[in-house]
Structure prediction request, 726 residues.
Amino acid sequence: MKPEWHDARMSGLIDNLHRTGAAARITLGRIFLNTVHYLCYLIAAALASTGAAQAQIPGATQNVAASIEAETITPGPGDTVTLAIVMKPKPGWHDYWLNPADAGTPLELEWQLPPGVTAGPIRAPVPTTLIVGGFMNHIYKETHAFLVELTIAPSVRGGQPLPVKVAARWSACSDTVCVPEGGNLAVNLVAGKGNIDAASRSRFDAWRSALPVPLDRHGRYAITGKLIDIAIPFPASAEVANVWFFPATQNVFRYAAPQSARRTGNWLVVTSEVSDAFNGRIDGLLRFNDVQGLEVRAMPGSVPAGGNVVTVLGQGETSSRRDLSVTFGVVLGFSILGGLLLNLMPCVFPILGLKALALAKAGGDERAARSDALAYTSGVILSCIALGGVLLALRAGGEQVGWAFQLQEPAIVLLLLLLMVAVTANLAGLFDIGSIGAGDGLTRQGGIWGSFWTGVLAAVVATPCTGPFMAAAMGAALLLPVAEALLLFAGLGFGLALPFLAIAYIPALRRMLPKPGPWLNTFRKVMAIPMALTALALLWLLWRLMGTAGLVVGGIAAAALLFGLWVMVREMGVQEVARKRTYLSLALVIFGMGGIAIGRLPEPTRGENVEAEADRLASLPFSESLLSELRGKGLSTFVYFTADWCVTCKINEAAAINREETAKAFAAAGIVTLKGDFTRRDADIARFLARHGRSGVPLYLYYPAGGEPQVLPQILTVDTLTALAK
Prediction:
């Protein structure tokens, strides 16, 4: 243990001894607790000097166990590798955040690094609060990881051993006692190619997802007497509750003082008490909702007044919950409206054709129409909830995914392709197993199950489409507690199914439907056209995802399915039920073979699978480092995020982005364009989208030279973009 560390501890005690006045009770408590910690550390130091420190006693069990892991053990020269100090408190025990508050000590690291290796600062996950005897503690009760970035110098030779050692010290505390603990941790690295296996990537992404996200704008604060108001930029469309501000700047706040919070426009204002007068920068961490956090830097300035009350951490249900309910109600309304508008999007049109065919067959029969609508609505809502639940579960597990993530998986795209091919053939009259959602259902049990599965299909194919009201709702779903987030996904499904519910339960609308007749057979064949176009779009998407090999596999699988269905219809004189089973078995075999082939294909590097599209803006591939570099040079930058399965994205690109007028205006104004392609899963893009309150694409941002970023509308025009250059 270094003498300077003893001096720092003793200096803190002396500072505490000099504190007097109104805070005498808290000060004496701090002196007592810090003195206990200091004496314990002296004992631990004495034991360590004889080689018998507690963490190194054979068979000794620590109350907070620590270990070290590297995301890769073969970092390349010039690379950065992430290390995790994993802490596992026993039940009833805890350790501390970087600013432990009134008591405790944070994790302290002494590195022993080989030449050419440097360690960055400790990055800590979002903590929680614990008050014992009137003293505030910033703590962790569950397993967590502190992350540190190691930088490998470019001069390091390939194959060079890089042994990394660190002496770690921390406090392990229960509600009644604190024990100093420590240990020598080590990991042996070797300079290599920096390969990271999938398991390590997933594990470290989960730990990174627990870190607070840095705000790209400064907050403001104002001190009035003993009260301090901190105004933090926070989108008005995002849900927020269970707020607490953890100050990283020490000796400014009275840690145990109560906090309150309110919303006013695009600001979240947290109020607490100061312990000393202060006039400088304040750094801290805003915790909100479950365990989400924002890194905040606030400077003196004006703070907006008024607003709605927000619950703070540890606060019970109060009248402020009514204000949150109003806000959540608005977001839920946007979700329902967004689902309703999805019915106007091209990707949903083929499904609407199937439903129109089903309603026409019902011939205005009230009972049949209502049963059909309820079954369809159930399929849509349950599918939206399932997709949303999987999305939230993957993100909670550290996977960086966004809305419509299923269309980033080639096997799922192949399944949808084969399904659309089968539906197209069915509508065109190649075979008849009872159309999917078009009247007879998947079995002889009427049209209920057919309508249900049509709803499932509608939810799956609708997710790539987005509208102007969906971005806020889907972004808010990433910030809400799980139950409320799933309610937003259910609202999206309800909105998508709403037109058919209206037809089923409003007789005037139902009477407007045409009566069944011979025209139905013609209409059914006409509806095969949009289904065929959808199948072609999925084949194109498979090409974009997996390159030429994906196109070949998808085309062969679709052709094999069509040929097999045609052969069976012409030559097999079997009963209808047996024929359906044969169709299903054939489809499963073809999909299984195609899935195996897709799984064995190497994933192409970005951009190698297709020729460059018409990109009049000469866009550069997006990366946060490049964006920071351009902003550092004072260059205006337009950033857009797109995906090949996003219909809205492609419409905007054709109508506004890749236009000659836009390119000329951007070139004249010196605006640089960055393009983030989210067609395939990209953790960096997913994290960036989440920080901007989005769960998927599109997202359009404009960074003026030296100014604050602007979020552009989801529906772009040439005038919208050219106006940026003026």
